Amino acid sequence: MVNTKTSFETETPVSRGNLQRMLRNSRKLLFPLAALILILIGNWLISPNFFNVRIVDGRMLGSIVDIFNRGAPTVILAVGMTLVIATKGIDLSVGAVIAICGAVAAVLIDQTELSPFIVIAISIGAGVLCGLWNGVLVAVFDIQPFIATLILMVVGRGIAQLITAGQIAIFNNPTLEFVGKGVVLGLPFPIILSALVLILVYLMVRRTAIGLLIESVGSNDRASYYAGIDARAIKLFVYVISGVCAAIAGLIITADIRGADANNAGLWLELDAVLAVVIGGTLLTGGRFYLGLSVIGALIIQSIQTGIFVSGLPPTFNLIVQAVVILLILFLQSEEFRRPFTRLFMRMRKQS
Amino acid sequence: MRSRKLVFSLFALLLLAFGALVVSAQDGGAGLTIGFSQVGSESAWRTSFTQAVLAEAEARGINLLFSDGQQRQENQIAALRSFIAQGVDAIILAPVVETGWDEVLQEAADNQIPVVIVDRNVTADPSLYITRVSSDFVHEGRLAGAWLAQATAGQCNIVELQGTVGSSAALDRQQGFNEVIALFSGMQIIQSQSGDFTRTGGKEVMESFLNAVDPSTICAVWAHNDDMLIGAIEAMREAGIDPGQDILTISVDAIPDIFQAMVDGDANATVELSPNMGAPAFDAVVAYLNGEDLPSWIPVAGGIYFPDTAAEELARRTAGS
């Protein structure tokens, strides 16, 4: 009894501090979340059965499920990309790494007798290698991340095409297909997988000091070096995580269509991932990062996409609609843009 | 006496050689040296296109100089210049992009080397090349529409998976298909989106169609290429719909995987995007060298394939690999 009371008392200031921090962060949290909700409401107005979910053969189907399912690769990429951007870096190669890892998995499963679990491990290993390559260029040779990862972005698709011999490498293997098409508790497996990746990475960076170290390297890598932080190791680490995330996304995309399409798998997805991180409020200049908000950013991008698909709008407008909606969201986040409205609001409150 | 004999026999030899050249030019082009600059090997279709040209050249006894441009115009221009330097009899160019060919085509024209453009178009002055050989996308769309009209007796709610927005293949196939279904008041497109010619795109768009409208009201899916349809088949299966049965399918390209889908009973018909452009291109070169008039465009039309021949087509088309 006494014990619980003391623990309660010691915890009170901590939780109050948490609450204050949450309130302070809430405005940051507010805008991406509000944007996502607004877009979902917009989708619902355009297509009234947007939130309908029906169950066929134990699988949930519906536009809202599609958003989480189709958005899963971008969500996973955005998680890895957030850490990279937090170190003031960028990883443009993730789209190409998707193609490489998908190609590795598809060709191995089709042409060898290896167990699908080993194939998945090798594919993720390929992602680790790609991440190490980027990480070494950035951390050891001090090449600008934009250029360092651009190299693999350009070469990667060529490597993937070499692996698949320029064809779409198709395969038939229920275990590997499960990664993209499986169903767990009625939900498509990619949704579960993206949630798992988010939770694991969150625990890793927020329940250990790694998150703090990443933020300090991103804020000032020289200062953190003098403070005794191995900035090189941290940078290497985030690129490897990004490579692993890209490999998982590659497995999902490849398994989803039961084939590795070296030309198109993950094409331009690196830009979606960067955009998701930016919408989530992490600055490209590094430092503080917001994993959860990056995920919201990824879901926003996918909601726009899915919304356009169900709207029946001619596809010629796809890119324009996407650009306008994203521009509006970025405006919403810009304090400069909001200032006249806030002033107006304040004046009105004063008058009343 | 001896020298006269020598001159005579030399003359005869020359005459024979000349005769052989003329005869061969009528005979499909044997003995000609032709340079062929290909885009690259970015798709299965492109690979079979290359193989078809190489095989046709071999069958005709044409000495074909082949250059793979690896999807870069610089490489293709360099290849064309090297063909010109080698003094080939003709050049076949499958351009990677439409613009920027004027200069090198002018160089070929200055050297009296005829050029045939195959597959994609170029924006250069038409006098710089003798003709263009390419697929007739409008024809493919019409054929697809005609089959669907017949299969459904002119009563069908169609969902359309468009190719990449603005691409000529997507625009022309759509035009041809719409021309035909416009003849039937019972046929209309109820949903249409771009799947970017990819499997993932086709699957994602088909999923959204199945959510946006009641799947039981969809009679057929019309895809501008086979890859998107293969993605759509996955989407239909996952939604508990039997593709090819509950929803009819029609697409264009005739890649091996669509024949596999037909064997599995998941697809109903595919219109071939003919990769056999070698024969008409070589015919055009021969006709030009013989001084015949050529049309400015030689369309290559593919056939339409159904499940009944799918197994043998699949075997035939995968025999090489």
Highlighted features:
heterodimer, A: 352 residues, two-stranded antiparallel sheet, two-stranded antiparallel ribbon, 14 helices, 75% helix, globular, disordered N terminus, B: 321 residues, alpha/beta, Rossmann fold, elongated
Protein topology:
The complex is a heterodimer of chains A (352) and B (321).
Chain A: H1 2-46, E1 54-56, E2 59-61, H2 63-86, H3 94-111, H4 116-140, H5 145-164, E3 169-170, H6 174-181, E4 183-184, E5 187-188, H7 189-206, H8 210-219, H9 221-226, H10 231-256, E6 259-260, H11 269-279, H12 291-311, H13 318-333, H14 335-351
Helix pairs in contact in A: 1-12, 2-7, 2-10, 2-11, 2-12, 3-4, 3-5, 3-10, 4-5, 4-10, 6-10, 8-10, 11-12, 12-13
Chain B: H1 2-26, E1 33-38, H2 44-60, E2 63-68, H3 73-85, E3 90-93, H4 102-110, E4 115-118, E5 131-135, H5 137-151, E6 156-162, H6 168-181, E7 187-194, H7 199-212, E8 220-223, H8 226-238, E9 248-253, H9 256-263, E10 269-272, H10 278-289, E11 297-300, E12 304-305, H11 310-318
Parallel strand pairs in B: 1-2, 1-3, 3-4, 4-5, 5-11, 6-7, 6-8, 8-9, 9-10
Antiparallel strand pairs in B: 10-12
Helix pairs in contact in B: 3-4, 5-6, 7-8, 9-11
Structure explained in plain terms:
The complex is a heterodimer of chains A (352) and B (321). Chain A has 352 residues and is mainly α. Chain A has helices at residues 2-46, 63-86, 94-111, 116-140, 145-164, 174-181, 189-206, 210-219, 221-226, 231-256, 269-279, 291-311, 318-333, 335-351; strands spanning 54-56, 59-61, 169-170, 183-184, 187-188, 259-260. Chain B folds into 2 domains: 32-129, Response regulator (Rossmann fold); 137-273 and 307-318, Response regulator (Rossmann fold, 3-Layer(aba) Sandwich), CATH 3.40.50.2300. In chain B, 46% of the residues lie in helices and 19% in strands. Chain B has a 6-stranded parallel sheet with strand order 2-1-3-4-5-11, sandwiched between helices. The radius of gyration of chain B is 24 Å and the shape is elongated. Chains A and B meet through helix 2 and helix 12 of A and strand 7, helix 7 and helix 8 of B.
